[in-house]
């Protein structure tokens, strides 16, 4: 929802839910997420890896962790995702067609991927023009962040600790296109953005 609306409250909720999920379902010893909270289950806790008609909880969690890691630059999320992929590796190798959502996660990891940071007011014309261009492109391995210019809101700095590094050029909406946290020169022309999108 954050990627669709850029309403930071959705991202705050996602982080809160992820924390609860980790605290109540994570198997610290062998890694992976259980299907139930062991304290509340009369059966031994189990994990699901297979992606059937509905992706497994662990594969969905893996992609969520990868995206949260890229959005917030918190490496803990990507480390957990890496642990999940290592746990699932044997299953995937034995039957790749049974783990298609995990393969989507793997594709996101090996890339190439991009972090696209738009610095501008969400209601500004320039910002909307850049977002329209981004939405016209097929970017399955990319995450997009919208930062208000000169934002003093503490919630932005809490979730995006890097936000103060990104400024507008000439007081216009400015876009930074990064790959693995290495950014190209900032741009504020939509035509220039087209050339940078993978």
State the end-to-end CA separation.
Answer: 22 Å
Strand residue percentage: 5-15%
- Could you estimate the helical fraction of the residues in percent? 40-55%
Quantity of strands, as a count: 4
Q: In order across it, which strands form the biggest sheet?
A: 2-1-3-4
Gross geometry? elongated
Radius of gyration, Cα only, in angstroms? 19 Å
> What is the SS-derived class?
alpha+beta
In total, the number of domains comes to 2
Write down the secondary-structure element order: HHHHHEHEHEEH
Summary of the model, kept short:
The chain contains 8 helices and 4 strands; from the N terminus they run αααααβαβαββα. With 198 residues, the protein is of the alpha+beta class.
Secondary-structure blueprint of this entry?
Blueprint: H1 2-5, H2 8-25, H3 57-72, H4 75-94, H5 100-110, E1 114-119, H6 125-136, E2 142-147, H7 154-159, E3 174-179, E4 182-183, H8 190-196
Provide tags for this entry.
single chain; 198 residues; alpha+beta; Glutaredoxin; four-stranded mixed β-sheet; 4 strands; 10% strand
Structure description:
This protein folds into 2 domains: 2-109, no CATH class; 114-196, Glutaredoxin (3-Layer(aba) Sandwich), CATH 3.40.30.10. The protein has 8 helices and 4 strands; from the N terminus they run αααααβαβαββα. The chain has helices at residues 2-5, 8-25, 57-72, 75-94, 100-110, 125-136, 154-159, 190-196, and strands at 114-119, 142-147, 174-179, 182-183. Strands 2-1-3-4 form a 4-stranded mixed beta sheet, sandwiched between helices. α3 packs parallel to α5 (100-110). The chain is elongated, with a radius of gyration of 19 Å.
